[in-house]
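Researcher: Before we compare anything, I want clean individual predictions. No alignment, no superposition, just each chain on its own. First chain goes here; please echo the sequence and then give the structure tokens.
Model: Echoing the first chain and its structure:
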Amino acid sequence: MGKGGEDYGKSENSGSSKEMDGDSFAAWSIDARECEEKYEVSREHGLSGGDVEKRREIYGFNELEKHDGPSIFRLVLDQFNDTLVRILLVAAVVSFVLALFDGNEGGEMEITAFVEPLVIFLILIVNAIVGVWQENNAEKALDALKEIQSEHASVIRDGKKISHLPAKELVPGDIVELRVGDKIPADMRVLSLISSTLRVEQGSLTGESEAVSKTTKAVAADVDIQGKKCVVFAGTTVVNGNCICLVTQIGMNTEIGKVHAQIQEAAESEDDTPLKKKLNEFGEALTVIILVICFLVWVINVKYFLTWDIVDGWPRNFKFSFEKCTYYFEIAVALAVAAIPEGLPAVITTCLALGTRKMAAKNALVRKLPSVETLGCTTVICSDKTGTLTTNQMAVAKL
């Protein structure tokens, strides 16, 4: 994986290489020649093969970390991480056991006895399939962020120009030549302009559609991304001009790598949506009500399976009927199962799935079904809409 210079300088054999770490100094705030000295490279000769190998051992490859998405089994289990669904699952199991018990006792007909538990199981299975399908498709679509990275770069090494070097093989200190239309493969310091001007479209990072003019002059150390006029960023595109650059950050230490890390962190720390919170509250309340009803129904019928005689003011001669106790327990459980809204999860999932389909038709990706309802609860949206409501790309409409 590309460490992007995160551990650069930690090796005992790195010598003065520690000074070259892009995190240890602001490359945009120092002169271009000083940058070359820091990275121990010249724009005319580039890095040697030995230098490249040493730096790759420390930096790794220039690529975003691959976060393995949740397995299908994990996604399936997540669909049952809901109070109401768990209640339905317990109800289905209890109904199945009671139906099996009645069949063995010669009671209700076999087929009709298993209709209710089978219907509940079917509802839960359909509910899980829809949820897994939606989330699995969303996970695949989110991987599209990696397509922002460039695949090849024009690099100078050992005094020779390599026109199509795989971008993932870049290391800090590499000298790269950029031309019009190139997708920038790493965060780089502009050393010199081949053309009179250099303009870069970096809307993928800033959201601003207007191309930014780049220069070789150093800027203040505390400026934001848009203000770093002498730095070009991975994933952005050269729209005008040619230049020679010095790679300062690769992999996850690039700005696009930091965005990737933030997306992954946000995905791992998702809070419950308002809908899920309400359903959990409803499920907890329903559980208490069902347990109380079961207990009351069972207690009311205690006199039918537990009898005794009063002798000298004290109960004596207790008689207990296990068969009748089981019978009234079945009645209590059946009443509880009947009180559970089996169709509610399926109805909710169907409505949310329809919502995601409508949003997908308008190119809006929904990762988790309940997020649709969360969007419906939104009262205020704060957004810088400049260049962000469209793709910011021209397309052929008519020939």
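Researcher: Okay. Second chain, same rules.
Model: Second chain and its structure:
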Amino acid sequence: MSTESSPKDTTASLNEVTDRLELVKEEIKGLNDDYDMVQSRLRAVDKKLEKSESINKELEELKAEEAQSERQLEQLKQKVEKTLSLTEQLEEKGVLDDDATDELLQIKVRETLDLIASLKEEVEKKKKELADLQAEQDN
């Protein structure tokens, strides 16, 4: 028996190696496709994370603006109370008559109501913006 392979055996071995090489190429192609898919998913997750961070930052800003609006509203209430107190004092001293007092109070009340309405409108606008951002983040 000879240790050398016959040409037929060599061809069969070569065909087997070629077949295995094709299988390896297919597996590599599949792995590359899987890698691309994972990379795509990671990019999508990164975008959602960035969007979430942006929304969280916007939410903090909206909360700060809402707190500022509430402080302004409280300051306004204090000013109205002070104005009413001063008006009562002036009225007691006879400096203001009832008609002037009523007119002054009506002006102050209108100004206060306008400011309150404006602040409420701003708060509602910010709440809507926040809801829109959260809905956008959920998508």
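Researcher: What stands out in the second chain?
Model: Helices lie at 7-92, 98-138. Additionally, The first helix runs from residue 7 to 92.
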